[in-house]
Amino acid sequence: MMVMKRFLKIFSLTILSISVVITVFLVFLSIESTSYNSIDKTFGEKLTKVAVQNARIFDPETGILSNEKTVFINHGYISKISESDSEISNKYRIIDAKNKVLMHGLADMHTHIFDRAELIQYLSYGVTHVRNMMGFPTHLTWRSEVENNQLSGSRLITAGPTLNGTQNTSPLHHNMESSKEAYEIVGKIKNEGYDFIKVYDGLSQEQIEAISTSATENSITFSGHPIKGVSNQFILNSGYTTLEHVEELFQSMLDYELDSLRAQELVKELKEADIPVTITLSAYNHLYRTALEKEAFLETLPTEQISPFLRYLGARSLEGWINPTQSGYDWTMKKYAFMEYLVHLLDEEGVPILLGTDTGPNLTVPGWSVLEEIALMQDLGISNLKIIQSGTTEAVDILNHRSFTGTIKEGAMANILFLDQNPLEDMETLSLPNGLILEGVYYDQPTLLEMREYANTHFAPFLISVGQFINYIFN
Q1: Which helix (H) or strand (E) holds 93?
Q2: Is 157 helix (H, G, I), strand (E, B) or coil?
Q3: Of these four, 74, 102, 445, 450, which has the most CB atoms within 10 Å of its CB?
Q4: pLDDT tens profile 223-269
Q5: Are the CB atoms for 162 and 134 separated by under 8 Å?
């Protein structure tokens, strides 16, 4: 994807320019950047037994809103859903929902987590689960901290190190020179505890075949970019769990051709293969709008909600698009319009679509970017129900996480947003949940607002973030 490739190029130049200074700094101060933690508190109220009364339950599978119910939660699990006038034992803490709508939490199915505080930030926006698409050892630590309630944040499902070939290499990728190497690295990623494999578009057909075989043998899934230069049928039959980025459908599977007939044929093939696509419009939209609106657009972004390191990289990524060449401007406009056309085709054909943002590059804000992505999907005519499903029911099997069931039902772990309105009628209600329960921890609205502010002031310092990446690259 061009967005991430540009980001990685700028990242590499940044790291090279200051790596010597920072490495010396880290050595002399003996800083283990992976253990650095500026987070000094947790949020929410742990409730063993809770009954949520006078609540209407939204079913994302059907779009139906129930009459008022009482939801009983025991040790984080939904034990019973009954009529609202049901008798409640005095052993239960009662939360009066006051006719609020309960909906299952959302998942961002394609993001890049670079800072602990981003997990707090995501949860404050009602995003209960994030699928991290480029894993480092530190993500395993952060995942454990969240699961053990040492860190208040979205549940983290993480890929291992991104697998790439010898083209378009990056210091943040594992760049494989042969298909034989795939068998070893896939098993290693599984044994180290990562949740799935992420593949990049510099791989060869033989390497993808080896990754697919090894993934099956190791009972782990793989997702990522389609591979430019190999047939679409090979990609669709090779075992991908998901394909990432509508931009990559255009660049790899359509070979950069603005051809509507080929696009229609491809989308029909995707429908037949039944492979979900995480479309990720928001990151490229930032580039597009920077070219179109220049500084006026950049001034609308809440950059105080981005870590210092990513704020620096994001500004560098976009600065070249404030005054692009005429040919660069024209191509960006045509390309983005065609990406929107592809999304329209995917929706019209019924290809499974996943909610994802590619947050990380281009001054995208964790959590807030999900609201941006939803608005962009609405602008393209995707129904509110399909958008909700893209971040709930469509994500269930892919995430394969114990607290993500897509719907609120008996026997499931409590993963509940409190909303002021029916989201089918007003998607703006998702911008600030009235409250949230995740795995038995209750966060009221003032707490969610406090978490947003807290995250903004507890990002890792710039030098620590750089040190973290240097530590990863060299170790």
Answers
A1: strand 93-96
A2: strand
A3: 102
A4: 999 998 899 999 999 999 999 999 999 999 999 999 999 999 999 99
A5: yes
